[in-house]
Specification:
Elements: H1 3-15, E1 34-35, E2 39-42, H2 45-56, H3 61-75, E3 85-91, E4 97-102, H4 139-150, H5 155-168, E5 170-171, H6 174-190, E6 206-207, H7 210-222, H8 225-228, H9 231-242, H10 249-254, E7 258-260, E8 263-267, E9 270-274, H11 281-292, H12 297-300, H13 305-325, H14 336-339, H15 342-348, E10 377-382, E11 388-394, E12 404-405, E13 410-411, E14 452-456, E15 459-465, H16 472-484, H17 490-495, E16 499-500, E17 508-510, H18 517-525, E18 530-531, E19 542-546, E20 552-556, E21 563-566
Parallel strand pairs: 17-18
Antiparallel strand pairs: 1-20, 2-10, 2-21, 3-4, 3-11, 4-7, 5-6, 8-9, 9-14, 10-11, 12-13, 14-15, 15-19, 16-17, 19-20
Helix pairs in contact: 1-6, 2-3, 2-5, 3-4, 3-5, 5-7, 11-13, 11-16
The chain binds glycine.
Glycine (GLY) is lined by residues 372-373, 376, 394, 396, 418, 447-449, 469.
Length: 567
């Protein structure tokens, strides 16, 4: 990640917070919202409230998903979106599971080397800033597909509160004030004309979004095709092309969200259900969890030297495979069954020793590093009927490509950067990609988004996910382990300090000043490089846990403005 991004994250999440998160505070102080019937946990209270109200009116978790996703586009333009894409995993009350992929796609006119110059070098910022960085957006197709298949209320009931919110406006938080200020130079660089976010917004100001409200009104009137074939499509294509992009009306009209079979696997007595490719999340999570399953993490202790070693070594090996093997299943053949098989993973861990760190240079595959943006957003929902969803949605970087269509009222993604522009060269998250994730027309770029649902004894146990680019998978992992191995509640599990290893660079990133110094020294002695500088926060996890009495506990990450609302 760019140095400035780390700096700003540090400012938002540490200077702004009176107390850094610690594991040792009294348990009671970590309890999240408890409700009996239903809950939404998302990045903004406005979105959680809208989703919860939909369920109170009799809607189900899928209705609430549509409303929450679009409310985040209004209340959380940093990552919530109409101009991006995402993934959702669900578990219905009857135990049926599924997932939907509304990931962006490369435009028809894209080419493998479109971000390289004549010397075969990456052209700085071309895949991150401005119109060439945009993938064909999937969010509207995604939410309409969910509504058609699984929703129960009329779409009007779901969109009306979102449109009202856009007209009424959203109050700026302190964190948002800082974020807007930090990214203003890039807004000016990416946009020819001034945009609403160029103004010096302060905490407690209200930003109104009438252009976005009008776009949503047209979508309400004309359905999902308004975005892909209607006036909105025409205005969007004109805007992108005027800014030097290559997306056409054909690209939009061909876009389809895809229902996919989730990755599911067991860990002790849990069943984990997560997102399959084109997200690497489910496969990578399965690999890591199966590699660590034979070890006594609970006996080693939470964030102890031995636990960190086992988890780190499993992460190192899984991320090496991720980079080499994974991509869009519609384009690439992947040996997923083998990758998540016990035989393969036991062999993979056979050279691990507690005495000494493995070296990433000794761990094949691949020859490739991973880089992805941190500025995604996640929300979790359970309803009064027993359905659960876990959805992660993104513009990729903060405010995506920074290109804002003022006429339509939303930012466009910079998801093209999640392809490996040049195999072997890291992207903005430091992730290295291989041939499997090279650019091709209509291909979906590899993701790390890991919306996940956990079952215990064949019943719903947890729904969880997070933003965080390449750290998404390891944050979801640690949250599940915190509950299962270390017996934390949901909010406590979310609050606990996190660390991350992704094979390359060969370092353990840790949240600063919250890990035991003795543990850090022991890890260093065993040959681990500890990076405490570059990870002021790792993820912003939003999850819901089913408690013993069948009530729900929300975990809303205080690293952000996240909030749980329910009844
Ligand atoms: N853009 C971040 C991800 O898809 O993982």
């Amino acid at each position: 990640m760019q140095k400035q991004t780390y700096l700003v994250l540090f400012l938002f999440f540490f200077i702004g917070c009176k107390k850094p998160t610690q594991t040792v505070l009294k348990k009671e102080s970590y309890q999240g919202l408890i409700t009996k019937n239903a809950m939404v946990v998302s990045a903004r209270i406005e979105a959680s409230k809208i989703g919860s109200t939909i369920m109170k009116k009799g809607g189900n978790a899928f209705d609430a998903m549509v409303a929450t996703e679009l409310a985040l586009a209004v209340a959380y333009p940093f990552a919530g979106n109409l101009g991006g894409g995402g993934f959702m995993v669900y578990r219905k009350a009857n135990g049926e599971i599924g997932s939907i992929d509304y990931r962006e796609k490369a435009p028809l006119a894209s080419t493998k080397n479109m971000f390289l110059n004549s010397n075969n070098d990456i052209i700085p910022e071309k895949s991150t800033l401005g119109a060439m960085a945009i993938g064909v957006p999937g969010t509207i197709a995604g939410v309409f597909a969910v509504h058609e298949k699984l929703g129960s209320l009329p779409i009007k009931e779901l969109l009306t509160p979102v449109i009202e919110l856009a007209y009424k406006g959203v109050v700026v938080t302190k964190k948002q004030e800082e974020r807007i200020k930090f990214y203003q130079p890039l807004f000016r660089k990416a946009n020819k004309d001034s945009i609403i976010f160029d103004k010096q917004w302060k905490a407690n100001d209200t930003i109104k979004y009438p252009a976005l409200a009008k776009t949503l009104e047209r979508i309400l009137k004309n359905g999902r095709d308004e975005f892909y074939k209607g006036l909105t499509a025409k205005l969007l294509v004109k805007f992108i092309q005027e800014n030097g992009g290559i997306i056409t009306e054909d690209d939009l009209s061909k876009y389809q969200a895809v229902w996919r079979t989730p990755i599911s696997f067991t860990y002790d007595d849990l069943k984990i259900i997560s997102m399959p490719p084109p997200s690497s999340g489910g496969v990578c999570l399965a690999q890591i969890m199966k590699m660590i399953e034979p070890y006594e993490l609970d006996a080693y202790g939470h964030n102890s030297t031995k636990s960190i070693q086992v988890i780190t070594e499993a992460e190192r090996r899984a991320y090496a495979d991720r980079s080499y093997y994974l991509g869009d299943p519609d384009f690439v053949k992947m040996p997923i069954k083998t990758l998540i098989s016990e035989a393969y993973l036991n062999k993979r861990m056979s050279n691990f020793s507690f005495e000494k760190a493995s070296l990433s240079s000794d761990v094949t595959h691949g020859n490739i590093q991973i880089i992805e943006s941190d500025e995604t957003t996640h929300y979790s929902i359970v309803d009064q009927f027993g359905n659960a969803i876990s959805a992660t949605t993104t513009l990729n970087g903060a405010y995506g490509s920074k290109l804002y269509c003022s006429e339509l009222g939303f930012f466009l993604n910079n998801e093209m950067d999640d392809f490996s522009s040049k195999p072997g060269v890291p992207n903005m998250f430091g992730l290295i990609g291989a041939e499997a994730n090279s650019i091709a027309p209509e291909k979906r770029m590899l993701s790390s988004m890991t919306p996940t649902i956990v079952e215990k004894n064949n019943a719903l146990y947890m729904t969880v996910g997070t933003p965080g680019g390449s750290t998404i998978i390891t944050s979801v992992l640690q949250t599940i382990l915190n509950v299962h191995e270390f017996k934390m509640g949901m909010q406590e599990a979310v609050n606990a300090p996190r660390f991350h290893h992704q094979w390359l660079p060969d370092e353990i990133r840790i949240e600063p000043k919250v890990f035991d110094k003795l543990v850090i020294n022991q890890l260093k002695k065993r040959g681990y490089y500890i990076n405490e500088k570059d990870s002021p926060i790792i993820g912003k996890v939003d999850g819901i846990l089913v408690l013993k009495d069948k009530s729900y506990e929300g975990g809303a990450d205080k690293r952000g403005d996240d909030a749980a609302v329910g009844f």
